[in-house]
């Protein structure tokens, strides 16, 4: 079996046509597969008819070379460490925009005008409260329940409390559900945190911006006046922008696959929250901080780097490596800068964890193993130190990731639902089990 990417000549002057095809040879048969060009980045070989043409499937566990969909939302160039939301570089959005504007951009494809942003922001603020019964819903958990477990359950429960926005065939209901998810995730996240602490829930305050409102719901107590810290609120808003979307990562693919069956958006986002929890994905920020605490001092770094390189040791440097980035994750650079801003703001610039992180990064980036495997810090490497400095326990780190990524999940879900060619996702397999055989009665086994 061989394959070559050929340009089909057009009929007149022999110039290559814009359309290209890939030819696949199986035995003495050749098959032409259409190739579709991207705006930027890799083209795709359309294999949707391959099984009908050849009787064979493609095989790509982990989807290392497979495009699962067409999307216009986010683009990553892993070799150059580039990340664009609707064509805008993440560095510019993080430095000059805010998270609610980024939500609008991801959902609707363009930066909003002043009037559009004002109306969108107003709609978000009008949906921040959750049904009062949700407070009783949380009472069913033990106080020491992991906040991600509480979040998975409470996001799924939104489909019970907001059944009036679950008809995905109705564009208005889709829009309301999207607003509700972006607006209510911070409220549910803060409730999960307060429940853990044994403190009373704090209602959202609609006169506050998104990040300040969330910090207040997490850290305000009835006994004292809450004084917002604009440096921390600005840093958190930036962290939300960095985490908002990231092409077809594991949790976004989960949301799309769940949505492809027609499940309601609350259930789809709950599935995304569940997938994000894994330590290889969104759970890496919690794991990275625990790793830095385990390393403890700069002197201990070499032994942990050796363990990360040892094939027989399951230990990995959490917050390092990425399926797509084979260069520095651009978000990690901004995250490192934000980390310094936060530590400065709280007067904690000599955080020993930051010292270990900076030295670990330096050692790893000069080590042949990491260079050869193109393992660089990813967004999770510095986010844990930053969030800990803001007063969040490690158990809340992935919860904050989920709050931010809800914007991307719901934008990707919307794009899929509105795609006229959309159909239920149903992968096939390479079957290597037993061939047909007959049942054997138990006394004959
Ligand atoms: C996120 O997909 C996304 O976009 C995710 C995300 C998003 O915004 O949605 O960016 C968020 O999930 C960031 C990644 C967070 N995860 C971690 O930091 C966990 C630590 N990293 C690894 O587990 C790993 O790098 C992955 C899971 C992130 C990527 O794994 P891949 O692409 O499947 O690569 P791999 O596991 O096959 O690793 C390639 C090689 C292997 O060595 P060989 O088998 O080829 O000899 O690199 C090694 C791995 O052993 N390797 C590491 C390593 N990561 C990979 N070795 C030591 N430490 C590491 N961290």
SSE order and pairing:
Elements: E1 2-9, E2 16-26, E3 29-36, E4 44-45, H1 50-54, E5 74-77, E6 82-85, E7 88-89, H2 90-96, H3 99-108, H4 114-125, H5 133-138, H6 147-161, H7 171-197, H8 210-219, H9 230-242, H10 250-260, H11 265-276, H12 284-295, H13 301-309, H14 330-345, H15 352-365, H16 368-372, H17 380-389, H18 397-417
Antiparallel strand pairs: 1-2, 2-3, 3-4, 5-6, 6-7
Helix pairs in contact: 2-9, 3-18, 6-7, 6-11, 7-8, 7-18, 8-9, 9-14, 9-18, 10-11, 10-18, 11-18, 12-17, 14-17
S-citryldethia Coenzyme A binds next to loops.
Question: What report would you give on this structure?
Answer:
By secondary structure, the chain is an alpha+beta fold. The chain is built from 18 helices and 7 strands. A hairpin with a 6-residue loop joins strand 1 (2-9) and strand 2. Helix 3 packs parallel to helix 18 (397-417), helix 7 runs antiparallel to helix 18 (397-417) and helix 10 (250-260) packs across helix 18. The longest helix is centred in the middle third of the chain and has 27 residues, at 171-197. The radius of gyration is 24 Å and the shape is globular. The site of s-citryldethia Coenzyme A (SDX) has 21 residues, from loops.
